[in-house]
Predict the 3D structure of the following.
Amino acid sequence: MDAPRLIHLRAQKDTFFKTHPQSPLSAAQKAAFTGLSYYPPMPNLDLIVTVTPFAQQDDVQIQTTTGETRWYRRYGEFRFTVDGQEARLTIYQTPHGWFLPFVDVSAGQETYPAGRYLEPVPLADGRFEVDFNQAYNPYCAYGEQWSCPLTPSENRLSVAIRAGEKLPGVWVGA
């Protein structure tokens, strides 16, 4: 996605967080909210990837931040390079689409400690678009009342993905 479109979508998301009744923010958080924090657009992290489907696509339970479990299908994996390091991630399938949770080495310092999420976009040729510029924090980053899937160990990266949303701002405690 080009930078102007990405910046426009980010502004729309900020408006949603500040004003919409379905925002994950409490009334106090909305009052203090000045916008989400993002990395600058990184065109080299908007990837078209070939996913290698697993021979056996198991349904797995993933624990949530509130101790519940949810079912996901382990669909396949893709490999890519970031800052000269090879990385590998698993894409999960849900009844609602594709799901890519991940944690990178910036977690807890620059990004949300439990990880960030993406929804890979399937392309007509069987590949997927994985745009890390659209990586977002799960709603549980904004309050304990939300239940969010924890990132499985297979999607913990040893490299930083400096794209997408950063840690929520100081207004989270408002």
